[in-house]
Amino acid sequence: MGPVTDSSTPAAAIGTGPKQARSRVTRRHLLEAAVSCLAEHGWAGSTVSAVAERAGVSRGAAQHHFPTREDLFTAAVEYVAEERSTALRDLFHAGPAARPAVVEALVDLYTGALFRAALQLWVAASNEEQLRPRVTELEARVGRETHRIAVELLGADESVPGVRETVQGLLDMARGLGLANVLTDDAARRARVVAQWSRILDATLS
């Protein structure tokens, strides 16, 4: 038997759940469209109108969720970064895994649309005063979270001298490979670098 509805309940309160669900779906579509737009067209070619059209919603609906362009694109990069972090944890839900697999998964974080979008946001922030502090704070937060995940998955003990720097070096290397991948896809070279870093980690972390 279903729940009893109180006839005194305001009509606006009924259906709040589905409305909120639709709002969450719209927001997610906007964020995903913003990342795709930024990765493909850069900051100059990415407008709220272009994102709204790609997401299949009105410009007004987009601005309801994200009042400014800066709100939209910083939220988009943060959203997808969180999604990728969750996916990375889910890949190795049992804890520390084989180091080559972890290194390869971390490198993959920097070779897709998310990294391309983030790169466009960094470039824009270098010239846009109103965007710079938001992107700087976002990058620091995402960087700290990625470092924590790397330490967890590698089973690294950062109390040992040199371990923290080695993990950070791995992430810096992965970012460098991501930059190289923007211009050309050199999967064979990337595989060799991943294998070498796995050996370095084995020597340092063991």
3D architecture notes:
- This protein is mostly helical.
- It has nine helices and no strands.
- Helix 5 packs across helix 8 and helix 5 packs across helix 9.
- The termini are far apart.
Question: Keyphrases for this structure?
Answer:
206 residues; mainly alpha; 9 helices; elongated; disordered N terminus
Look at the structure and give the mean pLDDT. Answer: 84
Shape by Cα distribution:
elongated
End-to-end CA span: 60 Å
Helix content: over 70%
Helix count from the secondary structure assignment: 9
Provide the β-strand percentage band.
under 5%
Structural category is mainly alpha
Main pleated-sheet profile: none
Order of helices and strands: HHHHHHHHH
Give a count of the beta strands, DSSP E runs of length 2 or more: 0
- Uncertain residue ranges: 1-15
Radius of gyration: 21 Å
Write the layout of secondary structure elements.
Elements: H1 16-41, H2 48-55, H3 59-65, H4 69-91, H5 99-108, H6 113-127, H7 132-154, H8 163-183, H9 187-205
Helix pairs in contact: 1-2, 1-4, 1-6, 2-3, 4-6, 4-7, 5-8, 5-9, 6-7, 7-8, 8-9
How is this structure best summarized?
The chain is mainly alpha-helical and 206 residues long.
